[in-house]
Each structure stands twice: as structure tokens, then as C-alpha cells.
Amino acid sequence: MKIYTQRLEQISTEQIFDTVELTFDTRQKSRFRATLSNGTDIGADLPRTGILRSGAYIATIDGDVLRIDAKPERLMQVTALSDFELLKAAYHLGNRHVPLMLTPNALYFEPDHVLAEMVIGLGLTVHEVEHPFEPESGAYAQHGHEHRHDNRLSPIKSLHHVH
To answer: What are the pLDDT digits (tens) for 14-55?
Structure first.
């Protein structure tokens, strides 16, 4: 079994690679096993440096490259009659700190009947669909800052609160 241990920032256009579709849950893990479409079993033991996004590349120590694609999975799709309604739903779902995928015409989240009922109560439409899941990483994750819910300020936040 090939074991992939490196994350690659980019690959050359001449490189040949296999692909594997993984769910969001698996792409969050640094260690996992998967099966390629050709039936080959592989393993991953990667550095813990964040989520594997769709289109990411990983490699073995021997230089074998694998492209990661987001696998379609069961999700709740939220649609609305207006952009403002969709914005309101994004606000309320985000306030519950659930992984949320934003698109211009819909929001997607992992199945949760309580959240679905809340969104329907706001007047939006919710459907269960099969769709690749690529949720937002959040403003703190994009800049390497920690998200905290206590009263201590990080050094970065302290700079923004000086009067």
C-alpha cells in the first residue's frame, strides 16, 4: 500500500497523478485510508496543517502524486427568493458555528434537522442533495489566527482594540 506523507503546494504540468474523491470529514484528517477508483488501497499520514481542499495534491516519499477531489455527499441545500434572505440564513447558520459552504445561489451544510427547521422557519427552502462539500474555512483560519470564545485577547486582537 502506498503511503502519502507530503502536502504539495504545486505540481509541474508534466507530472502524472492519480485522483481520489474524499468526503469533507476525511479531508479534515491527517491520517486516513482510501481506495482509488481503480481499486488500489492507499494510506495517508500527513502533517497536520489544515484541511485538504478539493484540488490539493499529496505525494509519497518516492514522488507518486495524488490529487484530492471533494466527493459528493449528502447535504442540506438552502435556497431563497432573494439575496437578502440567503444572507440572513448564512448569518443564522454561521452563528451556530457549523461548517457552511457558500455559493452565489445556495448555502450547503451537513444534514441536521434542527438547523433545517430553523432555516425553513426563516422562510427559505431546504432540500437534501448530493453535492461536493467545500465549506468556508473562516476568517481566523485563513490568517492562521486562533478563534477564541473567552475574554483574553490575542496579541493581534489587542492591536485592533487600542484606543
So the answer is: 777 889 999 999 999 999 999 998 889 999 999 988 899 999
Q: Report the distance separating Cα 24 and Cα 113, nearest Å.
A: 19
**What backbone phi and psi angles, to 5 degrees, belong to 152?**
-75, 135
Sign of the four-CA dihedral 56, 60, 62, 67 = negative
Per the DSSP assignment, residues forming a β-bridge with 120 are none
Distance (Å, rounded) from C-alpha 2 to C-alpha 97?
36
pTM over 0.85: no
Whole-angstrom distance, CA of residue 65 vs CA of residue 70? 17
CA atoms within 13 A on the CB side of 20: 23
| C-alpha to C-alpha distance for 47 and 38, rounded to whole angstroms | 26
Distance CA 58, CA 33 (A): 13
Which residues partner with 66 through β-bridges? 18, 58
* SS3 of residue 13 by DSSP: coil
**Structural domains of the chain, with CATH:** 2-70 (2.60.260.20), 72-132 (3.30.70.790)
C-alpha cell at 78: 438552502
- For residue 106, give the amino acid letter: A
